[in-house]
Design goal:
This protein has 13 helices and 31 strands. By secondary structure, the chain is α+β, with helices and mostly antiparallel strands. The chain has 3 domains: 13-72 and 87-270, P-loop containing nucleotide triphosphate hydrolases (Rossmann fold, 3-Layer(aba) Sandwich); 277-375, P-loop containing nucleotide triphosphate hydrolases (Rossmann fold, 3-Layer(aba) Sandwich), CATH 3.40.50; 392-519, 2-Layer Sandwich (Alpha-Beta Plaits). A hairpin with a 4-residue loop joins strand 17 and strand 18 (333-335). Helix 10 packs across helix 11. It is globular and about 80 Å long. It binds guanosine-5',3'-tetraphosphate. Guanosine-5',3'-tetraphosphate binds at residues 17, 19-25, 44, 88, 139-140, 142-143, 253-256.
Length: 524
């Protein structure tokens, strides 16, 4: 197979949802179809617990396991599929955001009873920023839920994307009979069964056979519904989907293995192979011969006796090979890797080569930080790895004056790993750590102590958001920074950040300083 063919057959995506909507269950069914696992439950048992826990052994155990399920690669027909796991727990959201920068498309899972929930909304914002193609799976049709038309309205409104159903449910809950697949014109009848792949009947909607399968009343309703869909929703167009403007919607029940194969078959057909990626220098095409890739995730081992990390590299162009010299652009140094790992479903194995779209795990002892680039030689800096405003902030103080160096080093490394964000107040030099969840403060404190021998103490600070600011009006910018001097900070890269105490203060600032732009992520 040529490099181009290898790359064309790759589909690298993430499943995103609010906790409990069915992401794990759906992922597991996708793996079952790919033959990557053979029994249901294999992924499930590895799942990160949803309850916040302060049992460190438990967290450590889960972190260990989550490496194995971070990326799940398998072959499906002619395609190579890479599913990137997006940690579902609130407290892991920062990591989740970054994972989305390494995928070429996403599948959003929504619970039919609950509709669009907060976490999904937040993750979709990132997808919209990057015009990531989105497919939606409305799950748990075997339970009572919202009317499908209402769900479509909600999806459009809440996720701010046009939708187009490609399958349509026939009733729901205990009366759920199946779906009509509008894409393939087939009737898929529902059999509640957790392992068996459902059979479908090719059937035109006008055929009188429909009545034989689902009766008069449901047949009429289905025909009416489909007529309405055709009138109200745009024709499905692959270009609009690929541009991130239109999301095809499927209905089913992941737990009952219903509607999943239809989703997967349509997915491999229409979802994009690796897409061109922007760097500061130029656009990199995946089919270029020269290898390039970037680090989007660093997974540290929490065991102090094994301080190694794994850096996750997304291959953006060409072919990566074992034991070949590549340039670590930030270090301006050539490096080669003797034991890169591939992620094939649940096991890790040494890989000899990987292609654009694949994820490579590189064992690391502190050489990498998030956003680092590796290339065949060219100086490239990938864009699209922004930091987002944290939601919780605390001052970090040194609790052991004898260990201030250790603390500084520890904080620096943990920030490079992307565990949280550091802001330094420009006025008094105090350090502020921003996270997306309470648990991260505990993780940082624990890791500083166990890995660096440093002790820290948290002190409260009341902040609402961190905004990266810029302006073409140098005078106004200087005036703003002077007036808000107590609330100005530098991020890790030395960029100006305004720490707003409340939404009201932020709104007032936006009103009073019209020539200043306030950004909620670092890449504007
Ligand atoms: P998550 O990864 O998005 O957090 O969700 P997960 O797959 O763990 O699913 C959450 C719960 O919803 C699980 O139940 C799961 O069995 C259930 N579920 C998933 N898909 C369906 C579906 O199509 N229909 C129905 N009725 N339920 C579904 P749980 O009670 O939390 O776990 P378990 O006891 O079943 O393991």
């Amino acid at each position: 197979m040529t490099i181009r063919e290898e790359i064309e057959r790759r589909r690298t995506f993430a499943v995103i949802s609010h906790p409990d909507a069915g992401k794990t269950t759906l992922t597991e069914k996708l793996l079952l179809f790919g033959g990557a696992i053979h029994v249901a439950g294999a992924v499930k048992s590895n799942k990160i617990k949803k309850t916040a826990t302060s049992d460190w052994m438990e967290i450590e155990k889960q972190r260990g396991i989550s490496v194995a399920t971070s990326v799940m690669g398998f072959d499906y027909g002619d395609h190579k599929i890479n599913i990137l796991d997006t940690p579902g727990h609130q407290d892991f959201a920062e990591d989740t955001f970054r994972t989305l920068t390494a995928v070429d498309s996403v599948i959003v899972v929504v619970d039919v009873a609950k509709g669009v929930e907060t976490q999904t909304r937040r993750l979709m914002e990132v997808c919209r920023m990057r015009n990531t193609p989105v497919m939606i799976f409305v799950n748990k049709m075997d339970r009572e839920g919202k009317d499908p038309f209402d769900i479509l309205d909600e999806l459009e409104e809440e996720l701010q994307i046009a939708v187009r159903p490609l399958s349509w449910p026939i009733d729901m809950g205990e009366r759920f009979r199946g779906v009509y697949n509008l894409y393939q014109k087939s009737l898929d009848l529902y059999q509640p069964s957790k392992q068996v792949v459902t059979k479908s009947v090719h059937l035109d909607l006008e055929s009188s056979d429909l009545e034989k399968h689902i009766g008069d009343k449901l047949s009429k309703k289905l025909r009416d519904d489909v007529e309405l869909i055709t009138e109200v929703y745009p024709e499905f167009q692959q270009e609009a989907y690929l541009a991130g403007e239109l999301a095809p919607v499927f209905f089913g029940s992941a737990l009952n293995n219903f509607g999943v194969k239809e989703l997967l078959d349509c997915f491999v057909e229409i979802a994009p192979s690796p897409r061109p990626v922007q760097t500061e220098e130029r656009t990199v095409d995946p089919n270029e011969e020269a290898f390039s890739g970037f680090v989007f995730k660093i997974h540290a081992n929490m065991d102090p006796n094994h301080r190694s990390c794994i850096a996750f590299v997304k291959v953006c162009s060409g072919k990566f090979e074992r034991n070949v010299n590549y340039k670590h652009v930030r270090f301006n140094r050539m490096m080669k890797f003797s034991s890169p790992t591939a992620f094939m479903a649940q096991k890790k194995e040494i890989l000899d080569e990987a292609y654009a779209g694949d994820i490579v795990g590189l064992p690391d002892n502190g050489n990498f930080k998030i956003g680092d680039t590796l290339t065949s030689g060219e100086d490239l800096h990938f864009k699209g790895l922004p930091s987002f405003s944290p939601e919780m902030f605390k001052y970090i103080e040194n609790a052991d004056p004898m260990k201030s160096k250790q603390l500084q080093r520890g904080v620096e490394q943990l920030m490079d790993e992307g565990v949280a964000q550091l802001f330094v107040n420009q006025f008094n030099g105090r350090k502020i750590i921003g996270t997306v969840g309470q648990l991260q403060f505990e993780v940082i404190q624990y890791r500083l102590l166990h890995e660096y021998g440093a002790q820290c103490r948290w002190e409260p600070i009341n902040l609402y958001k961190a905004c990266w600011i810029d302006s073409n009006d140098a005078l106004q910018l200087a005036d703003f920074k002077k007036r808000k001097f107590q609330y100005m900070a530098h991020d890790k890269e030395g960029r100006d950040v305004f720490l707003a105490e409340s939404n009201y203060i932020l709104m007032m600032a936006q009103q009073d300083f019209k020539n200043i732009r306030f950004h909620f992520n670092s890449e504007f």
